[in-house]
């Protein structure tokens, strides 16, 4: 689960960065071009949003092995747990 501090940092971001975060949350790991296509934001806006998300440590950048010229972005913090993923006693609450 995301900490209160991380949640507050995300709340302080511009709307474009929040949208990019949500796209990554729902779609999983994506390249910058895929984020542009999914979010319908400009490439420049997505680049800025990803920089902001990386600055606060909630998005991680990795190599995209299918095309090494691109990077793969993914959420670096645990988000909401789906009900069908709860197998531990801590999810029984």
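^ structure tokens above, recovered residues below v
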């Amino acid at each position: 689960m995301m900490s209160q501090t991380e949640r507050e940092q995300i709340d302080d971001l511009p709307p474009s960065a929040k949208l990019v975060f949500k796209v990554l949350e729902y779609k999983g790991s994506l390249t910058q071009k895929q984020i542009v296509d999914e979010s319908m934001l400009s490439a420049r806006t997505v680049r800025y949003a990803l920089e902001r998300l990386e600055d606060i440590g909630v998005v991680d950048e990795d190599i995209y092995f299918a095309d090494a010229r691109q990077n793969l972005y993914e959420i670096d913090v645990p988000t909401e747990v789906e009900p069908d993923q709860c197998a531990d006693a801590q999810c029984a609450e």
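The longest strand covers residues 59-63.
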